[in-house]
Amino acid sequence: MGKIKSRVVRRTADTLLQKGIEFNENFDDNKKILADNMPSKKLRNQLAGFLTRLKKQEKLARPKGLDK
Q1: DSSP state of 62
Q2: Contact 45, 31 (CB under 8 A)
Q3: What are the extents of the domains in the chain?
Q4: Structure confidence by residue, pLDDT tens digits, 8-66
Q5: Which residues contact 34 (CB under 8 A, 6 or more apart)?
Q6: Fold classified for 7-59
Q7: Spatial contact of 29 and 35, defined as CB atoms under 8 Å apart
Q8: What is the C-alpha separation between 39 and 43, in angstroms, rounded?
Q9: What is the CA radius of gyration of the chain?
């Protein structure tokens, strides 16, 4: 699978994060959060994977003393 995601996936992920929905670094948990809101399984899985990668990058970018 490539790292390039469509504009729809990136825009939807930004919208969901702005709404305040809490996602985490686990793909399966993110998939369950999105289960009842997505029109298709493919889009749900793409979003869950993209959000998982964003959260992992966010954790790595955070300074060491602030992870609470």
Answers
A1: S
A2: yes
A3: 7-59
A4: 999 999 999 999 999 999 999 999 999 988 889 999 999 999 999 999 998 888 777 66
A5: 16, 44, 47, 48
A6: Diphtheria Toxin Repressor; domain 2 (1.10.60)
A7: no
A8: 7
A9: 12
Q: Which residue has 């955070």 as its token pair?
A: 62
Task: Say if residues 49 and 31 touch (Cβ distance below 8 Å).
Answer: no
Q: How far apart are CA 62 and CA 54, in angstroms?
A: 12
2 vs 40: which has the higher pLDDT: 40
Of 25, 21, 14, the residue nearest 36 (C-alpha): 21
Using the structure block, give the residue that is written with the tokens 């749900």: 44
Q: Which amino acid would we find at residue 9?
A: V
- According to the model, what pLDDT value does residue 55 have? 93
